[in-house]
Input
Amino acid sequence: MMESENSSEIIVLSADSPRVLLILASQLLIHISKTSNATSNNSISGQRFSLADLAYTLQSCREEMHYRLAIVVNNLGNLSLGLAQYLLSEGHITAEAQQILKLAQSTVPISVHRGDTKSNSQLQSLLSGSSGELMMNVLLLEGDLNSLAVYWTKGGNIPWELLHAGKFPRKIDLPAYPIDAIPQKQPTTETEFFCSNSEFEERPGQNITTESVETLLLKIWKELLGSTQIGRNQNFFEIGGDSRLGMHMISLVRDTMNVDLPLSYLYEAPTVSQMSEKIAFMMALSSAIPMTDDASAYQEYEEGIII
Output
């Protein structure tokens, strides 16, 4: 379902360091620019998407970290401009940002809200308490998106699904989170940032075997854990994994294999061998289920999926 371009949305990004937040903003700007240049129908991987789809994906399908950025816009053009202005203000000007600023028809600054939830633990505690929840409910009732954006960047929790009630946005493919925790192997090219993998560029389920999934999953685990000595039957949590790395792993699986891996699989299938079998099954099942725009089918699919 395509939403009106006049409908404002809160676009959110978060990271575990200011540097990675800049990288995420740059990635998103590149992604939007390439999409806009490739087609006039707003397509990502052949699928139509809206600003609401983008907002929903970033709000609901990514881990919320300490360093936060929120932009309230009503179209992708203003979002690109806001991202470019943010990068410029941080001295991280890129070719894409320069081009956006050069071609901008409006010089009006886009409101970009930033926050570091680590810097003021007392404020975060206040926003997370009953008084903060009351404030958030009032802002939701009034539809004050800018104040909600500030509330979130300062550490407040927002039930994002309430902002999308009745809209039924879809999850779309976006660049993966940069693996900043592994200094010995930082991504050096745009392809690495997007975590692309030619083995899985086609529709999930086509020529996919448990062995091919296991090979790629083992590669992801080795990169995340910084070790080349990982066996297919070793437990993720016994070889240095934790919930934070698990979230990153789930994100990488989503971006490389187009599979929404439930968080519970970290505990139900904690080895490469076990998890590969579940992923291969999910990919085969996905290829066998026809796509539908029916809202009830969408709700049934999304329920219980934690990214």
Observations:
- DSSP finds 13 helices and five strands in the chain.
- Confidence is low (pLDDT under 50) at residues 1-5, 39-47, 180-206, 288-307.
- The domain at 9-164 is CATH 1.10.1240.100 (Methyltransferase, Methionine Synthase (B12-binding Domains); Chain A, domain 1).
